[in-house]
């Protein structure tokens, strides 16, 4: 059975660190509230003029180097972002040009914080059905650009960054022992638009506005939906939670990570956590966490990874991936 196998991953974070104390100089908040309610201690902020495609390109270069291949070997780029450089063309095509990739296809996927899970599902489908043999899947965001820096309930939560994963094609037996993407499970429910959105945008006739969120409502849905999709992914593959080596979740809030882990019954030591250093980087948070786990040696070849995310839309989903 044709499988999409991970060849290497990489990450890029902007240089500028913004601590909770830095934010407390802008809005009425403090380090204690932010740490207790979210687990966030600092986030990175893109420099003036540094765009989503710049972060994505740096992460892509690191992933290609880890995979030991060049951009000319790629057939496909799928880039997940809710903060594209421009309304069009796709930020993926800017990354394609910056990498020097002159063939194949490049496009964006928009599923906000679930973007990487969606993009990985799309790339995996294209690889398995033979439309591409090598793919670059990127999650990249500059959420600092769409935050309302006068709203303390949202501006403390997000950061900028990018992560990337190179996939190739391998052969498996078609069962849970195979290396590669075992399955993806995607969901959305558009009725919840108003709980998390950015106002404005091309067809509304208004310039792109700011992120608006009903945090407490999103929190409740997140724990319920994430627990359900984890169960769905395990059941679909005849797996039990004990067989999962690492949960690599979207990093929205430490309390969401802990509540979801408790609800599904995975020990905290098996959860990769970066929210303290990166805050919520939307579509970039999973590949950033993946790259952190690989870089520090926790994630090893053959390990079973469970990726899960929930975001605006609502969208949510999971991928099972044997590294
Ligand atoms: O990526 C996927 C999408 N996003 C998420 O998954 C985020 C989901 N939601 C959350 O993470 C949490 O709901 C938040 C971190 C956003 C908020 O935590 P909470 O425990 O739900 O707090 P709350 O919104 O219920 O606010 C509690 C209090 C309020 O004051 P009162 O009304 O109790 O007097 C807020 O005004 O905390 C106040 N507050 C703050 N205080 C200091 C809100 N933001 C801040 C702040 N600093 N930054």
What does this protein look like?
The structure is a single chain. The protein is of the alpha/beta class and 323 residues long. It has two domains: 2-171, 3-Layer(aba) Sandwich (Peroxisomal Thiolase, Chain A, domain 1), CATH 3.40.47.10; 180-322, 3-Layer(aba) Sandwich (Peroxisomal Thiolase, Chain A, domain 1), CATH 3.40.47.10. The protein is built from ten helices and 13 strands. It has helices at 20-24, 31-38, 52-67, 91-99, 115-128, 152-155, 215-236, 254-264, 275-278, 285-295, and strands at residues 2-12, 16-19, 42-45, 76-80, 105-109, 135-142, 160-171, 180-188, 196-198, 211-213, 246-249, 304-311, 315-322. The strands form four sheets. A five-stranded mixed beta sheet has the order 1-7-6-4-5, sandwiched between helices. Strands 8-13-12-11 form a four-stranded mixed beta sheet, with helices on both faces. A hairpin with a 3-residue loop joins β12 and β13 (315-322). α7 packs parallel to α8 (254-264). The mean pLDDT is 97. Oxa(dethia)-CoA binds at residues 29, 33-34, 37-38, 113, 152-153, 156-157, 196, 215-216, 218-219, 222, 252-253, 256, 280, 310-311.
